[in-house]
């Protein structure tokens, strides 16, 4: 019997929602791993809506759950309805929506607040000793909710210009967590907390390398489940 995995989205689109390639890659690897997946998102208004052609904010209002339904092909539930007992693991893809909608990291950095349903979901899986997978910017959720945990967002220095957001690693360390430097093709497993992280688009790398790195995260999550 395949593992039951909850996937939590933050909208649809890299600049104001979930990163589409990361969400898709996660779903492909979960499918290949024989997992049964259900998709969730909080039923809240997005912090902002970005015109992805121009890269600038608009005056539109959009709902995170409604926008996430685009990625879920309509098969999605309100995050408030997630029951940890029905799942073996939870995974959060990245995208700026994580830092804008699931928490306020984009505005407040390490002083951010985490959405109540995101926080309760993370806490519930942690208490149940069930694995949590996170990629790209989403490891900051674990860093904020679980002081002392170990995560990776890639490198702590902008090596060869490939890690332009390397300062995120320092902010994670300031929260009392351990940042572990990893390349895009790797993931890090915090065995004590059952947290698996990989940097994905925090690294400027070819799409297939990001896809493969997410695959290592999914594989480790399924092993722990």
UniProtKB/TrEMBL annotation:
Protein name: GAL3A protein
InterPro entries referenced in this protein's UniProt entry, alphabetically: Class_I_gatase-like (IPR029062)
Taxonomic lineage from the root: Eukaryota, Metazoa, Chordata, Craniata, Vertebrata
Domain of life, source organism: Eukaryota
CDD domains referenced in this protein's UniProt entry, alphabetically: GATase1_ES1
Protein species of origin: Chauna torquata
Gene name of the encoded protein: Gatd3a_0
Spans through the membrane: none
């Amino acid at each position: 019997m395949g593992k039951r995995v909850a996937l939590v989205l933050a909208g649809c689109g890299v600049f104001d929602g979930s990163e589409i390639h990361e969400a898709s890659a996660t779903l492909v690897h979960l499918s290949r791993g024989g997992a049964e997946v259900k998709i969730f998102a909080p039923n809240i208004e997005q912090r902002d809506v970005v015109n992805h052609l121009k890269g600038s904010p608009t005056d539109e209002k959009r709902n995170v759950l409604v926008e996430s339904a685009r990625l879920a092909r309509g098969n999605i539930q309100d995050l408030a309805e997630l029951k940890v007992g029905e799942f073996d693991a939870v995974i959060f893809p990245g995208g700026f929506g994580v830092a804008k909608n699931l928490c306020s990291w984009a505005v407040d950095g390490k002083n951010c607040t985490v959405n109540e349903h995101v926080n309760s979901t993370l806490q519930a899986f942690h208490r149940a000793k069930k694995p949590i997978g996170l990629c790209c910017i989403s490891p900051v959720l674990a860093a904020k909710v679980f002081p002392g945990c170990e995560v990776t967002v890639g490198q702590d220095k902008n090596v060869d210009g490939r890690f332009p957001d390397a300062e995120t690693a320092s902010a994670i360390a300031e929260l009392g967590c351990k940042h572990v430097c990893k390349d895009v093709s790797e993931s890090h497993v915090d065995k004590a907390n059952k947290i698996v992280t990989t940097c994905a688009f925090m690294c400027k790398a070819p799409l297939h390398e990001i896809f493969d790195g997410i695959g290592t995260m999914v594989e480790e999550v399924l092993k722990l489940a």
